[in-house]
Specification:
two-stranded antiparallel ribbon; single chain; 2 strands; globular; 5 helices; Four Helix Bundle (Hemerythrin (Met), subunit A); mainly alpha
Length: 177
């Protein structure tokens, strides 16, 4: 038994010694941009999945409607992305939009604005801190702001998935070919 343990230990050490070193520096900007693009795709798909006549649907009277959920994401994106200090102009978003086409466009515009602002960044500047609202600590890296928005959008995506299911539709991420 001891001999087996020694052999296993020697083999494990040899495997670790042969493993490549992972000292490469990550390209955080590229990672954030990839996550941002994936979030845009997910949000546009789920928003597009709901029929136009159901954009006013609310799971309960106290909650936002399906369309308001999508507009909430568009507005949050446009407002928070301004903290990154980019030169790209923020989109004009009508927070009272109710038509499906206008809501999907606002959502797309807000994500396109994020892409434009991120394209202005360098791998170093995306790690620099900017002033953010107090609930985020007052200062945060540009990457953290974008990751916050992605997490926020996933939260709303989850709520929108329930809205779809309550109306007999399957969210895009759950659809089977």
């Amino acid at each position: 038994m001891r001999q087996m343990i020694r052999v296993s230990f020697v083999l494990a050490c040899a495997a670790l010694a042969a493993a490549p070193a992972f000292a490469q520096k990550a390209d955080v900007k590229a990672e954030v941009m990839g996550d941002w693009a994936a979030m845009k795709t997910a949000m546009v798909k789920i928003t597009s999945e709901m029929p136009e006549d159901k954009f006013g649907f609310k799971a309960t009277p106290a909650q936002r409607s399906f369309g308001e959920q999508a507009m909430h994401i568009a507005g949050a994106n446009a407002n928070f992305l301004k903290t990154l200090g980019g030169k790209a102009p923020a989109p004009t978003i009508n927070p009272k939009a109710t038509a499906k086409a206008e809501i999907v466009k606002a959502l797309e515009d807000s994500f396109d604005y994020g892409t434009a602002v991120l394209n202005e960044q360098t791998p170093d500047s995306v790690l620099e801190q900017v002033k953010v609202p107090p609930f985020m600590g007052g200062m945060a890296s540009r990457a953290r702001v974008v990751n916050f928005l992605i997490g926020h959008a996933w939260d709303i995506y989850g709520q929108m998935a329930v809205y779809l299911r309550l109306n007999g539709h399957v969210p895009p991420a759950s659809q089977r070919p």
